[in-house]
């Protein structure tokens, strides 16, 4: 395990935001880059229960797609506390997060939200074709029966498992066509207005992490 690098007395932590729509590998990149940097991490979705999101995504897009309507006060407050050198409690895994020289966060909207923008030093945008992101998300959400389970399953159990896979895929595709695609495009357009590094999401995660860490260290050294 890599030891976390504590912030120096004269420099605040350097906050790196990894941004992209769902299915483009944000979580994996945050985990791999933080391991290389010895950084603490925070995740947007870990604070879902304390956050406020638009109820109707299509109506949100129609009225201008204001990213500030995605309110995550707990996420913002915890990041501010880490930057002050305080420990915080992760709502995702229930463990303490210590302040470190680098803090890598999963913030899908980059600097687009006012409550987060001033805290972020570096935004990395993962650029992945929407169809690849959709395929990754669909594969992640489906729960097919295992081969070992299939060997001993009854016809009824196999039929039920197959039905579950089909329904899961159908739900994912309908959600994408009805709302998710419009959401992704609206968010991506605004994140692209202010970022520091764009990464090709088709590349292996380890390669992306190395590229990100190299750019982050260069940006930190230039301060």
Brief account:
With 223 residues, this protein is of the alpha/beta class.
Description:
- The protein has 223 residues and is an alpha/beta fold.
- The chain has a domain at 14-128 and 194-221: 3-Layer(aba) Sandwich (Rossmann fold).
- Helices cover 47% and strands 13% of the residues.
- It contains eight helices and seven strands; from the N terminus they run βαβααβββαβαααβα.
- The strands form two sheets. It has a five-stranded parallel sheet, sandwiched between helices.
- Strand 3 and strand 4 (96-97) form a beta hairpin.
- 30% of the residues are buried.
Layout: helices, strands, pairs:
Layout: E1 14-19, H1 26-37, E2 40-43, H2 57-62, H3 73-83, E3 88-89, E4 96-97, E5 102-106, H4 114-117, E6 122-127, H5 130-141, H6 147-151, H7 155-191, E7 197-200, H8 205-221
Parallel strand pairs: 1-5, 1-6, 2-5, 6-7
Antiparallel strand pairs: 3-4
Helix pairs in contact: 1-8, 5-7
Can you give keywords for this protein?
8 helices; Rossmann fold; 47% helix; alpha/beta
What portion of the residues fall into strands of 2 or more residues?
Answer: 5-15%
Determine the CATH topology of the domain at 14-128 and 194-221.
Answer: Rossmann fold
**The level-1 CATH class of the domain at 14-128 and 194-221:** Alpha Beta
CATH level-two architecture of the domain at 14-128 and 194-221: 3-Layer(aba) Sandwich
How many H/I helical runs? Answer: 8
Give Rg in angstroms.
Answer: 19 Å
Helix and strand string, N-terminal first?
Answer: EHEHHEEEHEHHHEH
Instruction: Report how far apart the termini are.
Output: 28 Å
Helix content: 40-55%
Q: Whole-number average pLDDT?
A: 87
Structural class: alpha/beta
**CATH H-level superfamily of the domain at 14-128 and 194-221:** P-loop containing nucleotide triphosphate hydrolases
**Which runs of at least 5 residues are low in confidence (pLDDT < 50)?**
none
Strands ordered across the widest β-sheet: 2-5-1-6-7
Largest sheet: 5 strands, parallel
**Global outline:** globular
Number of strands: 7
């Amino acid at each position: 395990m890599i030891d976390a690098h504590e912030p120096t007395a004269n420099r605040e932590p350097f906050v790196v935001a990894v941004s992209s729509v769902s299915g483009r590998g944000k979580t994996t990149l945050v985990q791999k880059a933080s391991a290389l940097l010895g950084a603490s991490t925070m995740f947007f979705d870990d604070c879902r229960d304390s956050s406020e999101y638009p109820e109707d995504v299509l109506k949100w897009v129609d009225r201008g797609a204001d990213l500030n309507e995605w309110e995550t006060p707990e996420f913002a407050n915890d990041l501010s506390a880490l930057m002050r050198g305080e420990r915080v409690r992760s709502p995702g895994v229930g463990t303490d997060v210590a302040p470190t020289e680098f803090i890598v966060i999963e913030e899908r909207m980059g600097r687009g939200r006012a409550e987060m923008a001033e805290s972020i030093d570096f935004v990395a945008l993962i650029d992945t074709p929407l169809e690849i992101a959709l395929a990754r998300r669909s594969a992640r959400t489906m729960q097919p029966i295992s081969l070992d389970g299939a060997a001993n399953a009854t016809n009824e159990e196999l039929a039920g498992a197959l039905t579950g896979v089909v329904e899961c895929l159908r739900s994912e595709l309908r959600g994408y066509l009805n709302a998710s695609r419009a959401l992704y495009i609206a968010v991506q357009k605004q994140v692209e207005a202010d970022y520091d590094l764009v990464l090709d999401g088709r590349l292996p995660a380890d390669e992306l992490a190395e590229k990100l860490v190299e750019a982050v260290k260069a940006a930190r050294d230039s301060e």
